[in-house]
Amino acid sequence: MDNRQEEYEPHARALLPILVFLVLYLGFGIYFTYVHPLDGQMGFYVMSTVVAFGFALVVAFLQNRELNFDEKVHICAQGIGDDNITIMMFIFLMAGAFSGIASEAGAVESTANLLLNIVPGQFAIPGIFIIACLISMSMGTSVGTITVLVPIAASVASTGNFSLPLCVGTVVSGAMFGDNLSFISDTTIAATKTQGVQMKDKFRSNLHIALPAAGVTFVVLIGNAIAGGAAELGHYNYNFWLALPYFAVLIMALFGMNVFVVLSIGIGLFFVNGMITGHLAFADAFTSMGTGTTGMFETMIVTILVSAISALMEVHGGFSAILKFIRTHAHGKRGGMFGIGFLTAFMDIATANNTVAIVVAAPIAKTISEEYEIPPERTASLLDTFACIAQGIIPYGAQLLIAANLANISSISIMKYLYYPYLLLICVLISIVFGKKHN
């Protein structure tokens, strides 16, 4: 493994670009959320992450006057041109095309409706949790899952005399479980590719933590279901052939097939099945794939900017400064893992975006991982898990804001029913403290 960070003298001031980003993004977010809200806009999305990171990159270029402008550009190019960053970009494009054509074909609704027809009314709440888990794992997006299922959860709450925040929180919990484990989620892509590991290895590492948390969540929800009434779920229309590609993608991913092959087959199945069933026009198929890839552009631009900033910060001694701090305050492998977890959660709380948090924290986490001999798949798991925990509970994150808006309730009211993220935090802390030494 490359250990370039050992060559540079630690300089805490090299971390100034990240501070500039946090002040701009978090400052504007707080201002437009709580001080001067804008109608129809979420406060934390007024200041674009691309703009905030753009200012941070300018600051990074202004530092370290021992290097001239051309040398700094070369350093940025090396960071952006890393093999894993390039692969990550290609996967983002493929995942966008997959999401776009699936959405155009109406596959998400068909999959959700198919599963809802199986769930008994008495166990509507735990059933919705399982459905949210499966759909999010198949789609690779928690926000998309929440958008589809929250209206259904609201109906379940009304007909079954359940708490509306409980039902909405159940959807968010399941969506975060699936997003955390999905092979085509942008968080998984970012976590694995920045650490240079296979998705199936990160999945196995994650599963030991996420499955117990999901199991306990399911038991708690069964208790809530028994204490409540029986919801009238009715019959939901679905098309099995439109749901089939999602299940096929999920199965192929679980068997460890190459993600490019999995996504290619998924896109092909949606194209063929959508055309055969009449839910997808030939021209619309290509338009939707273009729309899906366009939706990934901001994530890709942020990745490019963060890669450039990180490369400059490393050369300026920023990573060495973080490593020095961790060496002082954390001892051994467990201390290193706590450092990675805290760093990732902090970045997510600051940016309100789990993918951005992972991309920012990943190069520093890799440095810590190499220093403390933490297996890279474990590091990838920690990145994704702690980002998932933070993103799943912050009331100003996209997940809770969208869920609250769809259900016409406050995001704060949902927080106490987010059983899975809280249990996931407990499970990951237990795994760090009491896990085997080689983990």
Describe this structure in words.
This protein has helices at 16-35, 49-62, 69-80, 83-105, 107-116, 124-139, 142-160, 164-181, 186-195, 199-227, 240-254, 259-277, 282-294, 297-316, 318-329, 332-351, 354-371, 376-393, 398-407, 411-415, 419-434. The chain has 439 residues and is mostly helical. The protein is globular, with a radius of gyration of 22 Å.
List the SSEs and their pairings.
Layout: H1 16-35, H2 49-62, H3 69-80, H4 83-105, H5 107-116, H6 124-139, H7 142-160, H8 164-181, H9 186-195, H10 199-227, H11 240-254, H12 259-277, H13 282-294, H14 297-316, H15 318-329, H16 332-351, H17 354-371, H18 376-393, H19 398-407, H20 411-415, H21 419-434
Helix pairs in contact: 1-2, 2-14, 3-14, 4-9, 4-12, 4-13, 4-14, 5-6, 5-11, 6-7, 6-8, 6-10, 6-11, 7-8, 7-19, 8-10, 8-18, 8-19, 9-17, 9-18, 10-18, 10-21, 11-12, 14-17, 15-17, 16-17, 16-18, 17-18, 18-21
